[in-house]
Amino acid sequence: MIGRPGIVVKPRSIDALLRLFTDVHAGEGARLIALATNAFLILTAYYVMKPVREVLILDQPGGAELKSYAYGMQAVLLMVVIPLYSSLATMLPRRQLINVVTAFFIACLPIFYLLAEAKAPIALVFFLWIGIFSLMVVAQFWAYANDVYTPDEGKRLFAFIAFGASSGAVFGAWLSGELIGLLGVNALLLAAATILALSLLLFNAIDRGAGVDRSVARQATTDISIGGGDAFALLLKSRYLVVMALVILLLNWVNSAGEYILSAIVKHSADAAVQAGTMSRGDEGRYIGTFFSDYFQLVNIIGMLLQLFVVARVVSWVGVPVAMCILPVVALVSYTCAALLPTLAMVRWIKTAENSVDYSLMNTVRQMLFLPTSREEKFKAKQVIDSFIVRVGDVLSAITVYVGTALLSLTVAQFAWINVVLVLVWLALSVITGLEFRRRVSAQAAGSA
């Protein structure tokens, strides 16, 4: 590997550097950095697009409520998309599958840009599209990482790969804020397409063994078959996957309800500024976009720091079962505080705390849960959990929002109390999932001994 001109950086030097952050064994550093960079590029692209989503959807009448309902629409759409993905995964080997799916999402972005520039009514369609992108492409990346690492390797190395994702989110949030000022909101879509194309090129280099040890390169000369199982059937026949799915469902039910609370307060703040004459109606979209860009950036800076310096150590010290319970405990404390003091400042900070832990520790741990599963479960059942089940949680959140706003006229504090109850159930299921993970890993280790 080449560093400065004339200086060769030995692989063991890379390994030694990475040991500052996690337990890297000899020869693992090159592929680990490449995968972390790939995650960085995917999350950069997503966070570059995110403010576009917020501006388009919240600029609609009843935007905060429409945002919650759109998550439910994504769940319905995924009931069609996931079987199509499962069929593709049966027909195509691993590398081809990832290439085809990612190339499709890249090709959509210039089309959305042209439609947005023409003022076409694409807010809802784009919201649905980016929601599916953020779930399926990220799940696909982590399915690949689960497939190339053993459970022992994954528990040691996933925290650093997830750091790549966290730093990409931070950089993407910062970049989106800079580009909005320079180019406007819609041009972010073209920037995201370019970044995603780079990520796809890097993935192919990784999978073909470029920059990694010779044994990995020899294994990468042929593409790998995934298998022919049905995605939903794989989930339903495994008690472990069902309980895991319930944890993810409750996580997203709680998180999406919290996002509604934040969006409603931000929209109210913008409307109040317009009514007070301190901001023109034409600047409302820019205000919302800038707020969320700053918010995403702060969340992801904290998440990145947690990812780099805390996550690997926490998982090593307390193990996956205990680490599974940390986010629900944070959420329990946060929403109790929000229920008692439901102000914009409080809601912003409790969502910052919740999401930063979610994007760092919880994101890493939930990827580790798939280490003791089959390849079919990694690529197919994982798509069900990480996309469809996530959106089912959002559907339940949308129902909560509808009933709470249209029928019961609930306050922000009352929505927060609902989340407190849900978190208690989530915490109990997290304990069960963590214990089952430990049992599976032990059984797998005993079987290979």
Short description:
With 449 residues, this protein is mostly helical. It has helices at residues 11-18, 29-58, 63-91, 94-117, 123-148, 151-183, 188-207, 214-219, 231-236, 239-276, 284-323, 326-340, 344-368, 375-407, 412-448. The chain has a single domain, classed as MFS general substrate transporter like domains (Growth Hormone, Chain: A, Up-down Bundle), CATH 1.20.1250.
How would you sum up this structure, described in words?
- This protein is mostly helical and 449 residues long.
- 82% of the residues lie in helices and 0% in strands.
- The chain is built from 15 helices and no strands.
- The two termini are 35 Å apart.
* N- and C-termini, Cα separation: 35 Å
CATH superfamily: MFS general substrate transporter like domains
Helical content band: over 70%
Q: What is the name of the CATH class?
A: Mainly Alpha
How does the major sheet shape up? none
Shape: globular
- The overall number of domains is 1
Q: How large, in whole angstroms, is the Cα Rg?
A: 22 Å
CATH architecture: Up-down Bundle
Order of helices and strands: HHHHHHHHHHHHHHH
Residue stretches low in confidence (pLDDT < 50, at least 5 long) are 1-9, 210-219
Give the SSE map:
Layout: H1 11-18, H2 29-58, H3 63-91, H4 94-117, H5 123-148, H6 151-183, H7 188-207, H8 214-219, H9 231-236, H10 239-276, H11 284-323, H12 326-340, H13 344-368, H14 375-407, H15 412-448
Helix pairs in contact: 2-5, 2-6, 2-7, 2-11, 3-5, 3-10, 3-14, 4-5, 4-7, 5-14, 6-11, 6-13, 10-11, 10-13, 10-14, 10-15, 11-13, 11-15, 12-13, 12-15
